[in-house]
Amino acid sequence: MNRPLALLPVCLATLLAACSTTPNPSGVADPGQVKIEKRNNALEVKRRDFRRVLLVLDQAMDSYVTAMANRGDPRADHQIDRISKLLQDVVLDMKARQIDGKLKATDHEPGRNYRTLQALAKSSSEPDQQAIALAALGFSGDMAMMPVILQGAQLSDPFMVDRAVLGLAVLKSPKTPPGVLAAIIENPKHPEDGRAQAAWALYQVQTSCPDPSEIAKIWRRFLGSEQHLLPPSIIVTAVRGLGLTGDHKHVDLILPMLKHPSPRLRMAASVAMGRMNAQENWKDLLELLKPQETNPNVRLSARKALARLAGDKDYTYDVSAWRKVFERGEKNRK
């Protein structure tokens, strides 16, 4: 996280009570006052413990975001799984917690972290803690948290919005309103990295959505009338999103991307063409295997797409072999 964690305010109830209490002339402690002081001390211990919980969550989510940037690498993928499990355990808090290397089983109330995070996510009194809570609740796996996180994504503070978007991306609730994420993506005043994250979140929601048609309409808009208004990072995600639908009707918007100056876009378009089973466009993919395509990752993506179109048969980078296979397929279909 980019903004430092704001510490929870120290409880002043004990000091205020002490200042307003009339001294006991007998020198015997007032039982009622002793009880109040014990209760306040216990509350302060819990607050200190929860400050450490927030720090653990904040640091772990930083590590998660870093690992996600390198996903696809086996070490990063392993780290993502490990950190996700850690975050879920801390958020749900159903077991004894280990904080600062010590097991805190005494006076542990199962689910206390979870309840406290929900309260923080709904309160604007401590913005930095609210931001951590909005992101952390996404790791709970509880789809009922979507509306709680969603309200954070509609606030005016970009930092808060970005933390809530992370929570929505991780939660992947199919009931997440795509229009909220689209509004962040299309907002030119929002930081570009936050807009790109919102596009990623929309893609993540799409992976769990039984009917992606509404999201597909957004991707089509981004690749059509709004393409010139959006940064390349969002265009890449839109291409991937349309490819994820597997619907051939979106080929018209993907095909031009095979010739885009950005290698990332050519790669994404190749993968999308394979997912959409664009048999009639095999020649366009074949162009990316020829010497004029100098990016090895683009060539590999095109090769994998061609293999998918050829029934999972791979002819490596042999252009002639690929051509024979697809021309023979065309004759057979006639």
What does this structure look like?
The protein has a domain at 246-334: Leucine-rich Repeat Variant, CATH 1.25.10. Residues 4-23 and 40-45 have low confidence and may be disordered. By secondary structure, it is mostly helical. A hairpin with a 2-residue loop joins strand 1 (97-99) and strand 2. Helix 11 runs parallel beside helix 13. It has helices spanning 13-20, 31-69, 74-92, 112-122, 127-136, 146-152, 158-171, 178-185, 192-207, 213-223, 232-245, 251-254, 263-275, 282-286, 296-309, 319-333; strands spanning 97-99, 102-104. The protein is elongated, with a radius of gyration of 27 Å. The termini are far apart. Strands 1-2 form a two-stranded antiparallel sheet. The chain is built from 16 helices and 2 strands.
Brief write-up:
62% of the residues lie in helices and 2% in strands.
Largest sheet: 2 strands, antiparallel
Cα radius of gyration in angstroms: 27 Å
Residues in helices, as a percent range: 55-70%
What's the CATH architecture of the domain at 246-334? Alpha Horseshoe
Q: What percent strand?
A: under 5%
The total beta strand count reads: 2
Order of SSEs, N→C? HHHEEHHHHHHHHHHHHH
Q: Pick out the low-confidence regions.
A: 4-23, 40-45
The secondary-structure class comes to mainly alpha
- Reported by name, the CATH topology of the domain at 246-334 is Leucine-rich Repeat Variant
The outline comes out as: elongated
Classified in CATH, the superfamily of the domain at 246-334 is Leucine-rich Repeat Variant
Supply the CATH class of the domain at 246-334.
Answer: Mainly Alpha
